[in-house]
Amino acid sequence: MIIKMAAKSVKNRALLLFLVSTMVFSMASCGKKGQTDGNNPQPNITIGNNDTDNVGSDEPTPEPDASPTPTEDETAKKDLKVKALYLTGWTVGSSERVQHFIEVAKNTEINSYVIDIKDDDGYVGYESNVPAVREAGAWKNKYDVDSVIKAFHDNDVHIIGRLVCFKDPVYSSKNPSLAIKRTDGSLWKESLGGGKYATWLNPYEKETWDYIISIAKEAVERGFDEIQFDYVRFPNGIKKVTDFSRYNKEKYEAINEFLAYVKKELPDVPISADVFGIICESPADTEDIGQYLELVGKDIDYISPMVYPSHYAVGQTVNGVTFSKPDLEPYGVVYNSLIKAKNRIAQVEDYKADIRPYLQNFTASWLEAGYYKQYGPEEVREQIKAVYDAGYEEWIIWDPSNKYSESAFEKE
User: Fold this and answer.
1) pLDDT of residue 20
2) Against a cut of 0.85, is the pTM above it?
3) Best exposed site among 24, 79, 288, 378 by fewest CB in 10 Å?
4) What is the pLDDT, as a whole number, of residue 79?
5) What's CA 17's distance to the chain center, in Å?
6) What is the Cα Rg of the chain in Å?
7) Which residue has the higher pLDDT, 155 or 16?
């Protein structure tokens, strides 16, 4: 009978093939009890998976979990207590030095590095694709950002990007309308010594904010885990030669608004700001640079006061203690600075920022003999102890040459 049907017409042959294939498929689908029907899959209940195959199904589409369980990696990052060293772009431009600092992180308590995105020379330290940066020629090939971040991340090292804000001699000189000016209209210039000068961006000008944030956003896309803003202030000592009265707001208001704007533009990225150590002691904005302790940390995640003992004035009083030679007393200066800051911040409602101080691992040989000491493992450890004794858990060590007293760090 099958032969006769096949001979009748092409139409009947097609019908026969359809019937046969249907019988075979039905037998196969009954072969194993409980096997899922491939033509009618069960709803995919993976959270966050929009399964378009279920459109029109009688089964309800599962709703995403409003509070998904964080991954192990996300939990580790959230709980990380940063113990970091600062590295320049030039340092991480050397693969040998990168490997060295990976080994430091493997073998000691160091778990993070602060790496320059843009230093105070005004240059982004790697090839940037930000249009404004490229137009101004404001990048240098100090290091390969992608390979450096990958090398550290492959070894579970947390990377914080340091981005110098308003001390920017490159972009300010290329865009003088955005630069700080003297009362006569000429560009204000900071003397760097040796006949060198640097111009600054004006923190009152919102266009400077957008330039800085565009660099920060690109850095996050490249893999930086956090963004740390340095020189987030006005230059000191310019009150007599500049006039900002037309802006009708205080300097600290401009800085606070900038930081609030940063957090709005980068809501899911940890944001920190480096501040002078002395603002932990000084009331309001005594230094006239736009850093007011009770306000500067209202909108961001961390402030990093640079409580370097060498940077305090001879005879400075901190938290009621007078230090005749501050650089000789690393524990006392750091401890009292942080305790004073802690007590002041405790009085501020909804203060968001935690304190993650910068500590000194350099020798202040520019000070007068007898007023400085050699900073090595003991001095570094004294400062770390002061951080813990003040009730804080995180710290960053600074040496501009990146030659650290590695024996100071606990072995792991």
Assistant:
1) 35
2) no
3) 79
4) 83
5) 66
6) 30
7) 155
Decide if pLDDT at 179 tops 60: yes
H, E, C per residue of the chain: CHHHHHHHCHHHHHHHHHHHHHHHHHHHHCCCCCCCCCCCCCCCCCCCCCCHHHCCCCCCCCCCCCCCCCCHHHHHHHHCCCEEEEECHHHHCCHHHHHHHHHHHHHECCCEEEEEEECCCCCECCCCCCHHHHHHCCECCCCCHHHHHHHHHCCCCEEEEEEECCCCHHHHHHCHHHECECCCCCECCEEEECCEEECCECCCCHHHHHHHHHHHHHHHHHCCCEEEEECCCCCCCCCCCCCCHHHCCCHHHHHHHHHHHHHHHCCCCCEEEEEEHHHHCCCCCCCCCCCCHHHHCCCCCEEEEECCHHHCCCCEEECCEEECCHHHCHHHHHHHHHHHHHHHHCCCCCCCCEECCEEECCCCCCCCCCCCCCCCHHHHHHHHHHHHHCCCCCEEEECCCCCCCHHHCCEC
Domains of the chain: residue spans and CATH: 81-165+203-408 (3.20.20.80)
Residues 132-141 pLDDT 10s: 999 999 999 9
The token pair at 348 is: 């501020």
| Alpha carbons 305 and 284: distance in angstroms, whole number | 15
Higher pLDDT, 2 or 340: 340
Lowest mean pLDDT among 72-76, 241-245, 349-353, 404-408: 72-76
Average pLDDT of the chain is 86
